[in-house]
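Hallway conversation turned thread

IA: we were arguing at lunch whether anyone had actually written out UBC core domain-containing protein end to end. Turns out nobody had. So, for the record, here is the sequence (466 residues) and right after it the structure tokens. Reply here if something looks off.
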Amino acid sequence: KSGLAGGGMENLMSPAMPSMPAPPPLVRARSSAEKAATAEPIWPLPGGVAESKMGGASLGTGPPPPMPPTIRRQTTAGALANSCDNIWDYYKEVIEDCEEGQFCGIEGLAGRSCYASRLSSSDEASGDTMKRIMKELRTELPRNLELSARASMFLRFDEDKPQFMQVMLTGVEGTPYSSGCFVFDIFVPNDYPATSCLVTHTTKNAGMVSANNGPGGFSPNLHKDSGKVCLSLLGTWDGPGWDPASSSIYQVVSSILWCILGAMHPYYMEPDFGGWEGTAPADDEEHDPEVIEYDEEVYFGTAKWAILEQMKHPPEGFEEVMRAHFRTKKHVILKQIQAWAENGSEDLRARLEPVVEELQLEFRNLLTEEQAEEELRIALQEVEFVTQKMAYLRAKVDGCRAAGRDPSSEMPKALQRLGMGPRLLRRAKERVRDKTEQLEDVRRRIAAGPSPLAAVEAEAAEDVVD
């Protein structure tokens, strides 16, 4: 699914880079918890040492107390490289349970599109063009749109005028766009597919993000003021362009996701700066201050405008899936932004601090009572697990000493982890307190009913429908 349909990557690149590698396949790796479930015992006692007992169970050869699956998903989210693996299946289930889901037609999209001026009869699609549009809407698009915790594509089209579309793309995990929601308006002209579709970046407040190497915003390929999307496929960039026989709307959407919102360092995506030409330094090499400065501008822009403000004011037609996306990736998002702050400049940390505080409140507002109860249940399970694990390790260490052995040399890891136990237990109990307060807040919010602002917005929405 991550490969580009039709003309392939060669139709997207400039002549200087005719064969950029295809996006990496999205293959789900086994989590560390899954690997541990089938591993051999970590701390068997040396030969000849009597087995210790706890509750009648053998501690000498058996594995440690098993960690409940729900806790695994939460506690392993700290490893950012594997964070999306840990919620991979769960993310898809949550999105697929949404009523409108990943792909659907909606009413009124044409009227609020940035291409609304093209509603005149002169721009109505011909019979052949409409036939091609409907073919893509019925087959290629719903079959190929990416859906994963790592990156996703969501598409809406106008039920009455399907020439008008809107797509929401979630930034590729591990990039400065990670988990952000970016919106693009699409219009299919009446001579399509002889000419390409038109695409404009319309994420609200995207103009607040500025490139330091040109007129770009979130990317050198996304114009700050006009929202123009620069791709040779769209005729807005030098290089091989649109091919009526093989190019498609999906190819454009996929190019934006993987080639623009998948860039590790946006700075290099300016023409002749190395990103498209394949001459940019590798990710693990040292980068000039200008590169890091642009990275940090996008980090903040993603956190503030593509995550926080999208949570507060989701674009019409994407409300349910956007909230599901953020609710499911809550832990991933918070840890990612925390990593940006910890590894960034003092200025970035200062700018992100109030954003994180607001995000905490917005995430709490997204919770249902059932979800808040589930988070409390998981926190209580974690306390129970840490308590059992400490008893297990203490019994192992005591058994080693009773056999006349030195735990520091026979089982140093067990001794070290036993020493960490009180701190981990204290943190686990703090989480229980936090989750208890969270549940109480959710229940108070539900009892109080919708806020006056929410009631006004709901009434306004009903008036629009009427």
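OS: looked through it. The domain at 9-20+77-276+287-366 is CATH 3.10.110.10 (Ubiquitin Conjugating Enzyme).
IA: good, adding that to the notes. DSSP finds 15 helices and nine strands in the chain.
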